[in-house]
Specification:
Elements: H1 5-19, H2 26-36, H3 40-55, H4 63-69, H5 88-91, H6 97-100
Helix pairs in contact: 1-3, 2-3
């Protein structure tokens, strides 16, 4: 999906405000989500922003920093995969469409 520079900058500004836990309107959130569904890059930006908002920016030298930089849900204990209780296909069930197609 190709974006104009104007749209990309608008999305990046909204994502930046999300990461700093600043006010974001429902309309802006829907706008970003619409593009995140079709773009792995925007989806990653959004996941990183939500992780930073929830947990603060993690040290790049730590495993949490790696998890955060990759946009993986794993900083919360309840999101960790447990092979004794979890089914791998169910665990990836909440993934963006572009991962499910892979």
């Amino acid at each position: 999906m190709l974006l104009s520079t104007q749209k990309r900058l608008k999305i990046q500004e909204i994502v930046r405000r999300i990461s700093f836990d600043k006010e974001v309107s429902l309309k802006e959130r829907i706008y970003v989500e619409k593009y995140a569904k079709h773009s792995s890059t925007i989806s990653l930006w959004l996941k990183k922003a939500n992780s930073i908002r929830r947990h603060g920016r993690q040290s790049e030298d730590s495993i949490n920093g790696l998890v955060q930089s990759l946009g993986i849900d794993g900083l919360e204990r309840e999101n960790h995969f447990n092979p004794n209780k979890d089914d791998i296909s169910d665990w990836f069930g909440g993934s963006p469409d572009w991962i499910k197609r892979s």
